[in-house]
Design goal:
With 64 residues, the chain is mainly alpha-helical. The chain has a domain at 12-26 and 33-59. The chain is built from three helices and no strands. Helix 1 (10-29) crosses helix 2 (35-48). It is elongated and about 30 Å long. InterPro entries: YABBY, YABBY_C. This is YABBY protein C-terminal domain-containing protein. Pfam families: YABBY. Residues 17-55 form the YABBY protein C-terminal domain. One of its GO terms (biological process) is abaxial cell fate specification.
């Protein structure tokens, strides 16, 4: 299912690198974890640590 571009947000875009890195970290720590469980845990980590969002927005801002 494809969503119109009006649903895309900068948060979703900035979450992508974090999610891939976090999934890799979780799978390295527990190789038997399913991708679904690793993704769910990574998404929860993203949601519960707002300072991650702030840090990524500062790193991505070249106008500072």
């Amino acid at each position: 299912m494809s969503f119109p571009s009006k649903f895309a947000t900068s948060t979703a875009t900035s979450a992508t690198p974090f999610l891939w890195e976090e999934i890799s970290r979780l799978k390295a720590k527990n190789p038997k974890i399913s991708h679904k469980e690793a993704f769910s845990t990574a998404a929860k980590n993203w949601a519960h640590f707002p300072e991650i969002h702030f840090e990524l927005s500062i790193k991505g801002n070249n106008h500072v």
